[in-house]
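U., I forgot to send this yesterday:
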Amino acid sequence: MKSYKKGLTEIKFTREDLVTTAQRLHIQLPKNLGDLLYSFRYRASLPESIIKRAPEGFEWIIRPGGRALYKIVLTKQTYFKPTEHLSETKIPEATPGIISKYAMNDEQALLAKVRYNRLIDIFTGLTCYSLQNHLRTTVPDMGQVETDEIYIGIDKKGVHYILPVQAKGGTDKLGVIQIEQDFAIGASKFPTLVCKPIAAQFMSNGAISLFEFELSNQTITIISEKHYRLVGADELSAEELENYKTRTN
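Result:
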C-alpha cells in the first residue's frame, strides 16, 4: 500500500496503478484486471499486508469510485451472513423439475427457486414481478455496477417499489458493497420508487435465507431476515401450519 499513511480511512487508486505497481514488483497480472478486482471485492480476502493495517474492529474493503476508479475504505461491516438457529418456514416447493435439472450454477438455481416459489412476495408482503436478470448499469460516483435480479413490487395502498436482489451460493460472501450498489441503482435509475434491497443465500443445511436492508446515516443494516425451506406437499403437517398462526412476526 504505497499510498497508505497511518490514520487514512480511504485510499483511491486506478487500474493503471495496479499495472505500474505489478511491474515494479515483477508480478505477472492476469489479462482481465476486472476479474482480479471482483475476486478481492466479493470472494477473496485482501493481502495480509493490507489487513493488518486496519484498526481493531474495522476492515478494509474495495469500493467503486467511478469509471475505472476504486478506493480502499475502512468499514466496520464487510459481510452479512445468515443468523444461526433462526426459525424456519416451510414453503411447498413450486420450482418446475425441468428448471431444477438444468440450472447451470448455485446462483442461477437460487434465483429460479426464489422466483418460482414467490419468496420475494412472501418475505416482503408485496406483490412482486421480475423485471430483469443481471442488470449491469452505471451510476454516479460508482461507475459500473451489477445486481442479480430486479423486481418491481406494489403494496395494498398502490405504492411502487424497486427490489434489487443479490443471490449467493453457499460458499459465496454477501458483501456490504453489493448492497450499497443496489441502493445506488434504486436512487439513480428508479428515483420515484421505494428501494428495498434484498439478498438471498443458500444455507449449508439446504434452507434459503432472505435479508432486507436499510440505509441510515450512511450505514447499511439488516432490517429483516427470514429462513425458508422448500418442501414437498406431504412434508408440511397440519400441526406446523397451525403453529405458524401463532407467530407474532
